Amino acid sequence: MTQAMSPKSVVELLKPVTWFAPMWAYGCGIVSAGVSLQDRWLFALGGIVLAGPLVCGTSQAINDWFDRHVDAINEPNRPIPSGRIPGRWGLYISLIGCALSLLVAALLGIWVLIATSIGLVLAWMYSMPPFRLKQNGWWGNTAVGISYEGLAWFTGAAAMLSALPGESILLLALLYSLGAHGIMTLNDFKAVEGDQQMGVASLPVQLGVERAARLACVVMIVPQLVVIALLLGWDRPYHAIAVVTLLAVQMMLMMNWIEKPRDRAPWYNATGTSLYVIGMLVSAFAVRGLS
């Protein structure tokens, strides 16, 4: 007998724990725009819902729908393989989420709609055959980094400005997207053997655990160095000093992490990544008022 679908199962499918990153980046976009919240609070609130529950939540549903056969073997208690999301409802929820996301995005402005459309396309390409960007660490991590950081930041600024954001905002969104590629690699250390068996070419599988860890560090460090240089060039020395300090602590934590990359990846995710996103917010405050 088919199990009834409960709201709790739908929420579990949408994975609220994953919403923080794009919601934070959207918040950075709001800050960087330099527009009064009093005048645009509906755009701020609507966009946070768009970035988290709608677009990110939809991407999680898409991913679980296309992974349902593998999850039936490896994680049978997930909502779709367990039958708590019955039949083709995983697909239907994904499509409904896309429609709602595009509707809200259209209400927030043309640039928000464009960014949201790109994010949804990447979400489908990440999980859906024949693309399956997630099968390769280079492409999959890039897609997630762009969606979770760059597009969300761009969307926040565009919604508040009702226009294409300025060069300084675009540069920061791009740089922090590139750095997020390294953050995404952190999540690949927990399942190296499983990825090898399933043919998933994560970076730890392709490069080996030690080389992948060092590469992830470089990928996280270099964009932040460029951000620091830009902040100095924009005459924002105090913000630059703050980002230098945050980066220095990250690098000290990295030295501890790369000694045991697999064991300490969750620890670095909780510590170093937190400093990384704080640096995003500092940079967002720095460019308020810049073109």
What is shown here, in short?
This protein is mostly helical and 291 residues long.
Give a description of the structure.
- 78% of the residues lie in helices and 0% in strands.
- It has 291 residues and is an all-alpha fold.
- It folds into two domains: 159 residues, Tetracycline Repressor, domain 2 (Orthogonal Bundle); 126 residues.
- The termini are far apart.
- 48% of the residues are buried.
Number of helices: 13
Summing up helix and strand content along with how strands pair, one would put the structural category as: mainly alpha
> What is the CATH superfamily classification of the largest domain?
UbiA prenyltransferase
Portion in beta strands: under 5%
Give the averaged pLDDT, no decimals.
94
CATH C-level class of the largest domain is Mainly Alpha
What fold name stands as the CATH topology of the largest domain? Tetracycline Repressor, domain 2
**Helical percentage:** over 70%
CATH architecture type of the largest domain: Orthogonal Bundle
Biggest sheet overview? none
What is the β-strand count? 0
Q: How many structural domains does the protein architecture include?
A: 2
Whole-number radius of gyration?
Answer: 19 Å
Return the string of H and E elements: HHHHHHHHHHHHH
Unreliable sequence segments: none
C-alpha end-to-end distance: 60 Å
